[in-house]
Amino acid sequence: MAIPITVLDCDLLLYGRGHRTLDRFKLDDVTDEYLMSMYGFPRQFIYYLVELLGASLSRPTQRSRAISPETQILAALGFYTSGSFQTRMGDAIGISQASMSRCVANVTEALVERASQFIHFPADEASVQALKDEFYGLAGMPGVIGVVDCIHVAIKAPNAEDLSYVNRKGLHSLNCLMVCDIRGALMTVETNWPGSLQDCAVLQQSSLSSQFEAGMHKDSWLLGDSSFFLRTWLMTPLHIPETPAEYRYNMAHSATHSVIEKTFRTLCSRFRCLDGSKGALQYSPEKSSHIILACCVLHNISLEHGMDVWSSPMTGPMEQPPEEEYEHMESLDLEADRIRQELMLTHFS
Length: 349
Fold this sequence. Notes:
Order of helices and strands: HEHHEHHHHHEEEHHEEHHH
Shape: globular
Function: Transposase-derived protein that may have nuclease activity. Does not have transposase activity.
Pfam families: DDE_Tnp_4
Strand content: 5-15%
Number of helices: 13
Domain DDE Tnp4: 148-300
Subcellular location: Cytoplasm; Nucleus
GO cellular component, one term: cytosol
Number of strands: 7
Strand order of the largest sheet: 5-4-3-6-7
C-alpha cells in the first residue's frame, strides 16, 4: 500500500498563501544604518546587486511562492557578513532558515557566473603601466603589477577518509590563491585548492602560473613572499640579505607585499563567513569554493562603488597554518636570479 507523503513549504506554513513573490521586507522601510549593521552594505549598493543579479534570481520555480531577488540578495548578504543562518536574520526579512539556505545558494551561483566580469588583470597597456606606477609610488619597487599570496578558509571535513583538505594545523581548509592591486582589488582568485597543498604547489599548478609562463605581461612581475620560489615573473625576498642594496630591496618588497595582507584582513572582516569565527563553512569543498569566490566578487564590486577596502574594522582572519619551510632553491632558476640581481643593482644600490 502506497503511503502518501506531503511536502511542506516552510514559508507557506509561516505566512500562508498570498502574492507569488515573497517580499515582506522593504528596503525603503529601514535606515541605512540598519542595512549596514545587518547586511554590511548600503542601500544603493544593494539596489545595484538587484539590478545586476535580478534576471538570474528570477528563474522559473515550481514553488508556490517565489522569493523576490531583493529578498534573496539580503539573505545572502546576511550570511556572507555574519557567517551563520541565524533565525533573527530570516525573521528580519520574512523567510525561514531553509529558504535562507536556498537564497545563499542562488545568489552565490549568480555571483560566480559573473566572476570574470569583476576579477581580472587589466587588458590594455595603459592600465598595466598605471599599475606599475602605483606600486612604484608605494615603496619604490619597479615593474610590479600585482601581489600574490594564499589564504586558508576553514571548511567542514568532506569525509573521514579524505585527508587532502587537512592543512598543517590539522584543520580542514581550502587554500585560496589571490592576486591584488595596490587598492586591494583582486585580479586573480583561485579558491578550489585543497588545504594540504603548500602555497608553492598551489601556485605551480594554478592557471595564474600557466598564464605568466606563457608570456602574459612580459617585462612585469608579481611579488610573492618566501613561501614561493623565485621566478622570472615572480620576485621573492632574499633569505639572508647581506649588502645595503639587498636590505633595501627586502624592505621595499615587504612594504609592497603588505597590501595583500591588509586585503585578506579586510576580506575576512567584511565577510565573516570566511574568518572561522562562526566555525567552518558547512558545505562541500565545491560549494565552499563558490562561496569564497562570491565574496571576492562582492569585494571588487564594493571597490568599484567607492567603498574603501580599508574602511572595514580590521579583525584577524582564520588562524593560518605556519609558513612552510622550504629549501632555498632560487638559484636553480638562473634567469630569475639574474633578473633579481639586476633589479637590486639598478634600483636599490
